[in-house]
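REQUEST FORM: STRUCTURE PREDICTION
Request ID: SP-0412
Submitted by: Lab K.M.
Chain count: 1
Length (residues): 57
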Amino acid sequence: MGVGVARISQIEHGEGATPDVVAHYLERLGGRLDPVADFGGHTLRIPAGGHQGSAAA
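STATUS: Completed
RESULT:
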């Protein structure tokens, strides 16, 4: 991944990990960050990394 073990440990423990850093880390692992805002009976997917999201009920 191009980062040291100490930095990976920091990210995994939430130390200094911004949403962009977490999104990049997850992408390198083959996943993606998919934030969701929950408004009770309505959820809204928030695009991460510039991708378009979609709303769901």
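NOTES: The first helix runs from residue 5 to 12.
Reviewed by: T.R.
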